[in-house]
Amino acid sequence: MARTFSERLYGAKLITSGAKNDLESLAQIGVSKEDIAEIEEQINQVEQLNTKQEELKALLKTSTAELTKNDKKLSEMTGALKKRIKLVIPQARWKAFGIADKK
């Protein structure tokens, strides 16, 4: 099963923490402080981008709700105007108003 974002992030933090604590042993295979620092910087960048993405998701949700509300209001307004137009304008001229109704 694929790991989640949180699991991958936690794993990255855990491995860098362990590597820091046992750097002397890992130096024998070429692992340096710089390698660990580079991974930690990547972790920080990923966390910042994730935070930004979550903020954008929240903004999108709010904007979508606002759009839906305003679109519904627009439909109600144009529907009411359409009914009023049909009361006084002859059916032959309804097309000029974008009204395709037959009655």
Could you explain the architecture of this structure?
The protein is an all-alpha fold and 103 residues long. It is 75% helix and 0% strand. The chain has helices at residues 5-21, 23-26, 33-88. The longest helix has 56 residues, at 33-88. It is rod-shaped, with a radius of gyration of 30 Å. The model has no long low-confidence stretch (mean pLDDT 96).
Order of helices and strands: HHH
Biggest sheet, open or closed, and with what strands and sense? none
Mean pLDDT: 96
- Total strands: the figure is 0
Task: Point out poorly predicted stretches.
Answer: none
Question: In one word, what is the shape?
Answer: rod-shaped
Proportion of residues in helical segments: over 70%
Strand content: under 5%
What's the N-to-C terminus distance?
A: 59 Å
The count of helical stretches stands at 3
Class of secondary structure makeup? mainly alpha
Using only C-alpha atoms, the radius of gyration works out to: 30 Å
